[in-house]
Amino acid sequence: MDVFDVQKFISDMDINWTPVIAATVCGAGALYLLSRWRFNQKIQKKILNARKRRDKSLQQAEQAVQLFKTQNPDFESSSIVSLSLPELTGKLKDGSLQPDAVLYAFMEKALEVNKNLNCSTEILMKSVAQLKDINTQKKGLLYGVPISIKDNVAYEGRDTSCGVVSKLDEPALVDSVVVKVLKKQGAIPFIKTNIPQGLLNYDCSNPIYGQTLNPCNLQKTSGGSSGGEGALIGGGGSILGLGTDIGGSIRIPASFCGICGFKPTTMRLSVQGISSCVKGQKSVLSSLGPLGRDVESLALCMRALLCQDMFSLDPTVPPIPFNQEVYESSEPLRIGYYENDGYLQPSPSMARAFRETKDLLERAGHTLVPFQPLRLYHALHELTMRGILGDGGRTLFSHLQAGPIDPCLRDQTNILSIPGFIKKLISIVLKPFYPRLSANMDGSLGVGSVAELWRQHANIEEYIQEVIAEWRRLNVDVLLCPMLGPAYNFRYCGSLNSALSYTILYNLLNFPAGAVTVSTVTEEDEAQLRHYRGVHGDMWDRLFVKAVKGGVGLPVAVQCVSLPWQDEMCLRFMREVEQLTAKSKLTRKH
């Protein structure tokens, strides 16, 4: 039998196929457009529902506060929210303040701050129900203390959106381990705070909840990714909060908003129930840690969390209680330091704040030893960038493209969307003129195989040991270095990954690190920006000047670092910096 000749069959048919093909193409196009329209409608519905949930919680909180004030005519919140954490816990313990009054005081203040700064994703109204049983937790170190938590920290029945549409309408089935432990210690989680879309950005804006503003200047960003925490605490709406940090995400908002933030050694605190858009990425590890108004608040939070409850709930956390003796030590320290890491020239205010802090430490009897980061260029591009985007950024990009892209992420998203071979070509073309941009583009390709990923992990382990060996050679206890600041103008964070060199290095190394606010930007600092040239004089250096411009009066911090698992040593060093700074300011006043 002859083979059926399709082409002959069609040609024998007396049909004009042009309109048929045209109709088919038009129909397929119409179907595609319809499917896109339905997809966009579904996305908009999810975003609208999330906003409605947030608005409903804000209304419920306002009503609850008003009811409490009506029932308690003498209630006055300002005297409560102005207390330090040690003062607050003391008054709660001795009964001179009741947990309900404290909760409603901070709820009222948080509502006020949120109206100005847009820092909340939801008020947790279950916190009111928690008051019924709070007296059973009277022995807890945080008894009656309202606490804010970052959006990606799981709280039963609430979303952990990470600022992406793909994670909406997926409420947590149970509390994260840290929330469970906080509750056992008597704390009352009462509000969730805003984040940037996808978390891997140090701005604080997403298409669901919008842009969070800086409490010190509404024309500046609060930083990120724990930017809602930084803004809320900096604005006085929370006394203690929990954030996460994979590149400076606790320390940068602390610096930008004029508070303190601490990134512990990864796994010192449990990360069970912490959401991420790059879950499974192991090259650069995220840490969960506290933000507060002062270092003592951070230490108290760590002391409360590092308890048997945490070690039982998450056996993967080493059962190491908080070492109060190390934290309270007053022995002179041997402190390594560097003012310029050789990758990003610090802003004038960063450099001045660093030098002033170094001088205070020397005058207090500590020994200061020059230190320089090792092979930083290699560490940032080949180990950090290539590690975080090990899959070429595909996992992160899949979450981002599931909804509208926030303006603060457009530059990052544009790079993620470029095909690999074109990225490689761009990298080659840029190399003679802009070597940093070239290396960054090449690093964004990620790794090409499992074998390459294993080599990358081995290289990171070798680098960590190399840095520890240098630390030991110099015999230093801790390290002092600049902290990124001051707070940026909007829309620059996504274009300036280069500025993360001072923070992300310690995520790669898994060294504890904290930010302590020590100064504010002066008119002279601002004037010196005109002479800023940067280390490389490239596009990134020029953008950095534009990002920090107009910062007079904004807070400036320094960064304190210690070796892995020596978290108490880092906090002790942070407290020393804080106390010396406060003493110096007092002396200048008199």
Notable traits:
590 residues, two-stranded antiparallel sheet, 11-stranded mixed beta sheet
Question: Could you explain how this protein is built, in words?
Answer:
Keywords: Hydrolase, Lipid degradation, Lipid metabolism, Membrane, Phosphoprotein, Transmembrane, Transmembrane helix. Belongs to the amidase family. GO terms for molecular function: amidase activity; fatty acid amide hydrolase activity. This protein is α/β, with parallel strands linked by helices and about 600 residues long. It has helices at about 5-10, 15-70, 80, 85-95, 100-115, 125-130, 175-185, 225-235, 250-255, 295-305, 310-315, 325-330, 350-365, 375-390, 395-400, 410-415, 420-430, 435-445, 450-475, 500-510, 525-530, 540-550, 565-590, and strands at about 120-125, 145-150, 190-195, 205, 210, 215, 215-220, 240-245, 260-265, 285-290, 335, 365-370, 480, 515-520, 555-560. Helix 13 (about 350-365) links the parallel strand 11 (about 335) and strand 12 (about 365-370). Helix 14 (about 375-390) packs parallel to helix 18 and helix 14 (about 375-390) crosses helix 20. The chain is globular, with a radius of gyration of 26 Å. The chain starts with 5 loop residues before the first helix and ends with a helix.
Layout: helices, strands, pairs:
Layout: H1 6-12, H2 17-71, H3 78-81, H4 85-94, H5 99-117, E1 120-123, H6 126-130, E2 146-150, H7 177-184, E3 188-193, E4 205-206, E5 210-211, E6 213-214, E7 217-221, H8 227-234, E8 240-245, H9 251-257, E9 260-263, E10 287-292, H10 295-305, H11 308-313, H12 324-328, E11 334-337, H13 348-363, E12 367-370, H14 376-388, H15 394-400, H16 410-417, H17 420-430, H18 435-443, H19 450-474, E13 478-482, H20 501-508, E14 513-520, H21 523-528, H22 539-548, E15 555-561, H23 567-589
Parallel strand pairs: 2-3, 2-8, 11-12, 11-13
Antiparallel strand pairs: 1-3, 4-5, 6-7, 8-10, 9-10, 9-14, 13-15, 14-15
Helix pairs in contact: 2-5, 8-9, 10-23, 14-18, 14-19, 14-20, 17-18
